[in-house]
């Protein structure tokens, strides 16, 4: 019934299997990829015709994680997969970025790529498997895809590169790198690193490329067995005459416009040239007009690229290695915990840092279960930042991707949770944009963290590099403008400290770049990063030693795990009382680590003292401050050490005889007490008479010492006597203990349950 085709490859210590022909047979291409016990199904469908008037390539990639893949039911009210999570959005972009440039110019049929995680083994990350499955499905679908691509994840530990490490191995190492590549060149790079050198990073990319080639071989083998007939697509370029006409009409106007250094002036001049071109083709057919508009972009690209390659002349007049002017201001906003305004040329962002407690951590429900993230970075790109009218609201895929890139750049230099027990949120609001607002976010975000007093390892700067490639000739551009990004061949972003790279991202618009171009870009970016770091230190050279007055303070203490129950209390009664009374926020984990937070140091100290009073054991002979909580006929119960109660017998209130406890104390009174005894049941006997109630100094005991009491042990048989029905001779209950003493008026009535053991005795 099924015509199943399969290929397998031993790769990175596991078997990678690609299968087609069994599932989703009505799609143009469908591949089930299995690596370890992680399984991803990817199906590709393509529209057979192009919508009238369409002049762009509508490729859409959707990556989805099924909770059932990990044997889980989604949390929350809706028990089904909902909108895309941040991870799903990022992986969708990870697949889209290397695939999109491999479709020929002029191909505008809509294509849908859907990758779904069907099984997850808790070890093998599904993103690489999804990328491979998508490449294989496109390759066998028959659409004009100039692939296939391979993909690999690389770790780095103890000087050795690791192929497809699991997340635990990644956390232990210094690198998390994902590379997608064709057989001849690298197409896409995404990474987070712990200050790797340029040579170490380049070695990781080349290692990943070599391993990707093995996957490409397997995909080609599958295509030889199962590929559909290639589409017949007419992509003949017959725009030469239109291009020549446009150059003659507006070529000089475009060249003059790109010599204007101000973005607004340049945009106005370009719009005037475009209007002039449209007018020249106003009498032509709608199809010809559409082609002319598309061709005009090629004319603009040719003019800019030629000027850079031949003359080294950039749009704004800079040299190829020159960085735009930088201005940084910290402490920009008065009430935030940390803030910075970072401006580089016509790119600007306001970055703020907010510090919070543990309950502000982001809860993430994914295939690995519930996890918590203490560092968040959110990037916003409002339409006014580019002088346009547009949608303003929830972040799109681009904003999520740019925010994650900046997150990866800053995360490696953050202090550990133990050293700095705060939840950290950095917010980047881009207010102007003309090239690499994500790298401005890295720089501004770093300054805002330093302004907030977050003890980062070292400052981080970032720079975006561009590429103009014609045949074997190429030029790498430092700190690219928006137009250089649009008209160039590469977007290459590098962030790092003075000691090494913390993040690298590369997207390419041509069929890959070589090792030589990669090495040149890394070296040039290093110089640019160093320059930007120098400019940043002018605003703030080191981390502030004090937190903002508006930031919460957090103090951490550790207690024995056996005491956690006492601090929390029945149903949380005790911890709620601590919070309500002191005003501090208290968090306690299963290991006995307690975090006390408040903007008021006095509240923290009060809560800390209370908790320590609960968990500490009282010491015999030590003096404590206490409060009278209950008065009875024979004395008063005093609360001390926050959660301890002890009895001050009436005889221990003063050195002289006291008739009634109320003659000496009243409920709520603050007193000083000395611990006399702690019995084997934890009952505490206290004394007020041995402590100066004004100074707290101990007073010498002038009374004669008490006779030692009879040990509480075996008193000759069962104290309770025979059980009901036992007719044996019980004998005298008191044996030889002597006659019962007469009780005074104060001794009348049964002994209360909370009375210490030594007072319940008849001795």
TrEMBL record:
EC number(s) stated in the UniProt entry for this protein: 2.7.7.8
Cofactors that this protein relies on: Mg(2+)
InterPro entries with a match to the protein in the record: ExoRNase_PH_dom1 (IPR001247), ExoRNase_PH_dom2 (IPR015847), ExoRNase_PH_dom2_sf (IPR036345), KH_dom (IPR004087), KH_dom_type_1 (IPR004088), KH_dom_type_1_sf (IPR036612), NA-bd_OB-fold (IPR012340), PNPase (IPR012162)
Domain S1 motif: 621-689
GO MF annotation terms: 3'-5'-RNA exonuclease activity; magnesium ion binding; polyribonucleotide nucleotidyltransferase activity; RNA binding
Alphabetized SMART domains for the sequence: KH, S1
Gene3D superfamilies: GHMP Kinase, N-terminal domain (3.30.230.70), K Homology domain, type 1 (3.30.1370.10), Nucleic acid-binding proteins (2.40.50.140)
Basic and acidic residues composition-biased segments: 700-751
Any coiled-coil regions, as ranges: none
Region Disordered: start-end pairs: 695-763
Catalytic activity: RNA(n+1) + phosphate = RNA(n) + a ribonucleoside 5'-diphosphate
Function: Involved in mRNA degradation. Catalyzes the phosphorolysis of single-stranded polyribonucleotides processively in the 3'- to 5'-direction.
Protein family: Belongs to the polyribonucleotide nucleotidyltransferase family.
Protein name in the entry: Polyribonucleotide nucleotidyltransferase
Organism: Novosphingobium nitrogenifigens DSM 19370
